Recover the amino acids of this structure.
């Protein structure tokens, strides 16, 4: 947790540097070029590591990478946490401010959520709340097999994360574990996706039929061999 708040503080600091506040203006492209030494140090990409300062105590380093020639991404910010994980943010200078690049790369200046909120279990990309681990796995399997028609869940409209919840959980209190959004859509698995078990049932019936046929065939073969043996014995006894 201490680690997460250190990250949060670092991201707040970075946002303050980029956007500025009433005391200091935000970082401009010209400021960034001065920081990295462009163009004296070459064509780029050029990097600059922020010196230790208030707000950055909880992370290992914050590095700015300047891409003077890239039409989409002007600046990549790398925040390295105390475990050595790198959190990258991509930004484009639009002449006035730092904005998200058009390619949809990660740009929000908030820490990446890597710790699941209390009570969430992740299975195959879906999240389960209010279930024991065994119940969650059972449900996940039924969902996968198409046998969980009618099961209610919440859908995050921004990243399509599905959150399944038990009867003991108030769904309005839940958040998306990926983006933290609280505006989630109430959904339920349609009842008509029972095609898969039906197909499986048909397949297993066909399998059973084939097995019976084989048994009948084997039985026929055995009785033939048996009657041949009997007549052989009868001939021998004569
Ligand atoms: Zn989300």
């Amino acid at each position: 947790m201490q680690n997460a708040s250190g990250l949060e503080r670092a991201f707040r600091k970075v946002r303050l540097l980029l956007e500025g506040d009433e005391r200091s203006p935000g970082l401009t492209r010209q400021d960034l070029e001065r920081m990295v030494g462009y163009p004296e140090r070459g064509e780029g990409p050029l990097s600059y590591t922020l010196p230790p300062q208030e707000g950055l105590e909880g992370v290992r380093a914050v590095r700015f990478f300047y891409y003077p020639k890239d039409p989409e991404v002007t600046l990549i910010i790398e925040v390295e946490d105390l475990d050595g994980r790198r959190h990258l943010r991509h930004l484009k200078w639009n002449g006035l401010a730092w904005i998200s690049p058009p390619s949809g790369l990660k740009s929000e200046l908030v820490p990446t959520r890597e710790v699941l909120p209390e009570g969430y279990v992740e299975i195959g990309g879906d999240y389960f709340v209010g279930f024991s681990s065994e119940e969650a796995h059972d449900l996940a399997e039924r969902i996968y097999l198409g046998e969980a028609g009618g099961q209610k869940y919440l859908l995050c409209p921004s990243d399509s994360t599905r959150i399944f919840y038990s009867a003991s959980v108030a769904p309005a209190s839940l958040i998306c574990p990926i983006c933290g959004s609280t505006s989630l859509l109430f959904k339920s698995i349609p009842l008509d996706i029972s095609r898969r078990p039906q197909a499986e049932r048909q397949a297993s019936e066909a399998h059973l039929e084939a097995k019976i046929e084989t048994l009948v065939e084997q039985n026929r073969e055995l009785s033939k061999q048996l009657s041949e043996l009997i007549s052989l014995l009868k001939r021998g006894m004569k």
